[in-house]
Structures are given as structure tokens and as C-alpha cells.
Design brief:
With 276 residues, this protein is mainly α. It has two domains: 54 residues; 212 residues, MetI-like (MetI-like fold). It is built from 13 helices and no strands. α3 crosses α9. The two termini are 33 Å apart.
């Protein structure tokens, strides 16, 4: 057995390296193409790294329209994160502290809401937004993203809050705290890892979402980044260099947020996995 342990570690390490290469290779190629000038992306044989690196594609990609798309994505994503996390916290706390038939029925509805893909509910949401006169506005995208991400956010926070013993609430109540004081002063500080994990999840989903943004916006000044990238795909060709450069620019904010909050994100995901 002792002779098998080093080999097991070697195989595990090789598997991890192979998996890392498979995951990172498309991103490396994206960065490589974004630095290639002119027709170099179509060179045969293809080069993993550009022979004459240039930042011209980034200069062309970072045009005024891109800045508008960037601001639209920030407004929509941050607004969705703030609303979804706030609503999910209240709902998750209610689901973990009350087990009435009505609450259990509402939990079943939340589960049912997760069974439908976004493409299945886009038409009814579109019709409701049209009737309300909200198409081509921030409100239409925010409401649509809330509909898609809120059920998952509730279950993420519910799994985390289920670990918090009810005795904490009871002890705070004995000290004279009301329900709101217990929630804001006792529960929320203990839920920080779960809140961060949920916020990062919602941010990633809304930042990269394409279908709703394409369907609910009709003018350039309301487009988000994923839809704005279509500007580089023309009728007679695709500007691969600028397209890849814009893809890199779009990825940077999400990657930066993840690396800054990765400890809280992992802690929030794993904390809800084990109850005890």
C-alpha cells in the first residue's frame, strides 16, 4: 500500500495538470488572437503566440460604444446582485426558521422555478415587459435576471443559514432583541461567506447573459457587453482580433472579483454543503 501512495499522487497531479490545460487553453488562445495583427490568426501553421504582438486590437475594441456597453452591464449586474441578495436573504431566513405548510409550499415553488431553463420563460417575460412598457430599459433586464437567479440564490443562502443554530435567535431574543435586530445584528454577520458566494454567482450569471439582453434591448445605447460584441461580427466577415480583445476586456472584471473574493466564495459554497 505504501508503494501505491506516491503513484496515486502522481496520477492525481497529472490529471490536475491535464484538466488545467484543457480549461485554460481556450483562454490562452483568446489572449493570443487578441494580440495578433491583421491576418496572423489565419496563418498556417497556426502559432500559439503571436510573432509580432500588438495592442491595436485593444485600442480599436475600446471604442466609445464599448464604454457604453460596459456601463450598461455594470448598472444591470450590480443592481441585480443587490436586489437578488437582499430578497434571497429574507426568503432563506424565513425558510430556515419557519416550517409551516405555507412555507413548505413556497419552497416547493422555488424548486419548481429552477426546473425551467431561461429559454423556456423568455417569451412570457417578454410579453409582460412589453405590456408594461419596459422594453429597452434597465428595468426589463433587471427584472428578468431577478427571475432567473433568485431561486438559486435562495437555495444557496438557505443551505448556509441551515447551519446556524436556532439557539442564536433564542439567546438574542432573551437579551431583548426583536426579529429585525436578530436578523441584522446576529444572522447577517455570520452569513458573510454565503452572501459573497451568492453575490459572485449572480454577478457571473448576469454579466455574461446574452439571450435576455438581446431580446429586451433594441438600441445601441441600451446594449450590454455580450450583445455589444456582435458589432465585430459583420455580414462579410468577423474581426477576430477585436472580438477576442473585447472578450478579454469583458472577462477581466469578473476574474478580478473572483480572485479578490475567492476565499469567501469557496467558504460560502462549502459551508452550506455540510450541516453540523
Amino acid at each position: 500500500m505504501s508503494g501505491q501512495k506516491p503513484m496515486t499522487r502522481v496520477w492525481l497531479m497529472l490529471g490536475q495538470v491535464l484538466l488545467a490545460v484543457l480549461i485554460l487553453l481556450p483562454f490562452f488562445w483568446m489572449v493570443s488572437v487578441s494580440l495578433k495583427p491583421g491576418d496572423e490568426p489565419f496563418a498556417i501553421p497556426a502559432n500559439l503566440w503571436p510573432e509580432n504582438p500588438t495592442l491595436d486590437n485593444y485600442v480599436k475594441a475600446f471604442r466609445p460604444e464599448f464604454r457604453v456597453y460596459f456601463m450598461n452591464s455594470i448598472i444591470v449586474s450590480l443592481s441585480t446582485v443587490a436586489i437578488v441578495v437582499s430578497l434571497a436573504l429574507l426568503a432563506a431566513y424565513t425558510f430556515t426558521r419557519n416550517q409551516t405548510r405555507l412555507i413548505l409550499f413556497m419552497m416547493a415553488l422555488v424548486i419548481a422555478a429552477q426546473m425551467f431553463p431561461a429559454s423556456a420563460i423568455i417569451i412570457p417575460i417578454y410579453k409582460m415587459m412589453k405590456e408594461a412598457g419596459l422594453l429597452n430599459t434597465y428595468a426589463s433586464l433587471i427584472l428578468a435576471y431577478i427571475t432567473v437567479t433568485l431561486p438559486v440564490a435562495i437555495w444557496m443562502l438557505r443551505a448556509f443559514m441551515a447551519r446556524l443554530p436556532v439557539e442564536l435567535d433564542e439567546a438574542a431574543a432573551v437579551d431583548g432583541c426583536g426579529p429585525f435586530r436578530i436578523f441584522f445584528s446576529v444572522i447577517l454577520p455570520l452569513c458573510k461567506p454565503g452572501i459573497v458566494a451568492t453575490a459572485v454567482f449572480v454577478l457571473i450569471v448576469t454579466w455574461q447573459e446574452f439571450l435576455f439582453a438581446l431580446s429586451f434591448t433594441s438600441t445601441k445605447d441600451m446594449r450590454t457587453l455580450p450583445v455589444g460584441m456582435n458589432d465585430f461580427i459583420g455580414q462579410y466577415g468577423i474581426r477576430y482580433g477585436e472580438l477576442m480583445a473585447s472578450s478579454v476586456l469583458i472577462s477581466i472584471p469578473v476574474v478580478a472579483v473572483f480572485f479578490l473574493l475567492q476565499r469567501q466564495f469557496v467558504a460560502g459554497l462549502t459551508a452550506g454543503a455540510v450541516k453540523g
